[in-house]
Amino acid sequence: MHMPRYECWPSTSSMDKDGTDVQQELSKLKAKIQESREQIAVMPGIDASPAEQQQQLETLQEQVRTKKQLLQKYKSLCMFEVPKAS
């Protein structure tokens, strides 16, 4: 059995317009990717290895724990007098 053959391709001018649109969008996307790469490159700590970053994180977490303990200690000592409203 022979099936009829249909041409489903858009016109050449339509394809040219679509191709131009695609190229413009692709250029925009490439520019955004490049901008992202540049921003990532200047982020603090990006040059540190994962192990170094983990060590820094642990150090900072320990500092936070110490400071929280000191705050609790000073609060419990009641060293601060609250002025009375007159």
Topology:
Elements: H1 12-41, H2 50-77
Question: What would you note in describing this structure?
Answer:
The chain is mainly α and 86 residues long. It has two domains: 16-45; 48-78. The chain is built from two helices and no strands. It has helices spanning 12-41, 50-77. The longest helix has 30 residues, at 12-41. It is elongated and about 95 Å long.
What is the radius of gyration computed over CA atoms, rounded to a whole number of angstroms? 32 Å
The low-confidence parts are none
Please tell me the total number of domains: 2
Helix segment tally: 2
Number of DSSP-assigned strands: 0
- The class by helix and strand makeup works out as mainly alpha
Give the fraction of residues assigned to helices. 55-70%
Q: In angstroms, what separates the terminal alpha carbons?
A: 104 Å
H and E order: HH
Q: Averaged pLDDT, please?
A: 84
Beta-strand content estimate: under 5%
Taken from the alpha-carbon principal axes, the silhouette is: elongated
- Biggest beta sheet summary: none
Brief descriptors of the model:
single chain; 86 residues; mainly alpha; 67% helix; Med9; MED9_metazoa
Question: What is the compact description of this entry?
Answer:
Keywords: Activator, Coiled coil, Nucleus, Transcription, Transcription regulation. With 86 residues, the chain is mostly helical. The protein has helices at 12-41, 50-77.
